[in-house]
Design goal:
The protein is an all-alpha fold. It has 16 helices and no strands. Helices cover 78% and strands 0% of the residues.
Length: 330
């Protein structure tokens, strides 16, 4: 393709074939070689060629804008990615009509970019509108609908609207069970998201516990005990049990998560620090000062071995150890 491009440039710098060759190269760099910057250069070359040939902005141009947007997205340049996707919508709407399935897809893609850019309200509006258009042109169990119901729930969580997020996650969960079955990694993920959303509603905390248990049981069957996804399920379960006041169960769940992480990453890994801190706090609330003291000492050892000589953290842990010592009568 590169040789063909060089030859065509020498023979005829305005050849329409240059557009086709640049697109082919760009797609290889983007999809196969995972080099979005190089792909972007070729897609930009296509735009330049089309401008020199005075080509109208048609569906091909819209698709090139989409590809350029994807390149910028892969490069984490979300502002530029959004700019190109914003160009796509009016162009495709003009050519296809506002209720075409492709308009739904483009609107959904734009919504996801806004969500990644930490703008959940704008994301919510686009995803909701995109889903309405896409649903009208698709089967109810279309994978893209399931995926974007979850993204819509994520946007609601970003807006601190846990109540509506629960609605979208619940619909997504029913579809996942219908399409994939209950024992599936994606189904477990939706149970976890639903549990997270239910923790925003005090009246639903017991339901959150049950959904985290469902997530945990699925992951145990699929991944087994010693897997990072299983550890995440234990962490979520522990947090929901704390909300319900089941501190003994919460401490057991947190301890299981820590044991899994120890097997996966080693006992002195700094990533254990936060989990141990939560466990120490739970032991303190339960009046288990001896166990709490052991946890704080482990935290201190992890800090020292990791050479994290940060005075604030070290003094906090030392304070914790001193406080727990003060709880003992002797």
């Amino acid at each position: 393709y590169k040789n063909a491009l060089d030859c065509k440039m020498l023979i005829d710098p305005l050849s329409p074939d240059l557009e086709t060759i640049n697109i082919a190269l760009a797609e290889i760099f983007l999809n196969d070689l995972k080099k979005p910057m190089t792909a972007l250069q070729h897609f930009q070359a296509v735009i330049d060629i089309r401008a020199k040939l005075n080509k109208e902005e048609d569906l091909n141009a819209a698709n090139i804008y989409i590809q350029i947007g994807y390149c910028y997205s892969e490069l984490a340049k979300l502002k530029e990615a959004i700019m190109y996707f914003e160009k796509v919508l009016p162009l495709k709407t003009k050519l296809l009509g506002e209720n075409h399935k492709d308009i739904g897809v483009a609107t959904l893609d734009l919504g996801l970019l806004y969500l990644r850019a930490k703008q959940p309200l704008i994301a919510y509006k686009h995803i909701k509108k995109g889903l309405e258009i896409y649903k009208a042109n698709s089967l109810s169990d279309d994978p893209l609908i399931m995926k974007n119901l979850i993204i819509l729930g994520d946007a609601c969580m970003g807006m601190r609207n846990g109540k509506e997020a629960i609605e979208h996650y619940s619909t997504a969960l029913a579809l996942h069970i219908q399409v994939y079955g209950k024992i599936h990694p994606n189904t477990a993920m939706v149970y976890q998201l639903l549990g997270n959303a239910e923790m925003t509603q005090p009246s639903l905390w017991p339901m959150a516990v049950e959904n985290f248990k469902e997530c945990l049981n699925i992951r145990l069957r699929i991944f087994g005990e010693n897997h990072s996804e299983t550890s995440k399920a234990y962490i979520g379960l522990s947090e929901s049990q704390v909300r319900c006041g089941n501190l003994e169960d919460a401490a057991l769940s947190k301890l299981k998560a820590i044991e899994i992480q120890e097997k996966l990453q080693g006992k002195d890994n700094i990533s254990l620090y936060g989990l141990l801190e939560h466990l120490g706090n739970l032991y303190g609330k339960l009046g288990k000062h001896k166990e709490s003291l052991e946890v704080y000492r482990r935290m201190q050892n992890i800090q020292l071995k990791a050479n994290r000589n940060i005075s604030q953290e070290c003094s906090f842990t030392t304070y914790g150890i001193g406080f727990i010592h003060s709880q003992f009568e002797d």
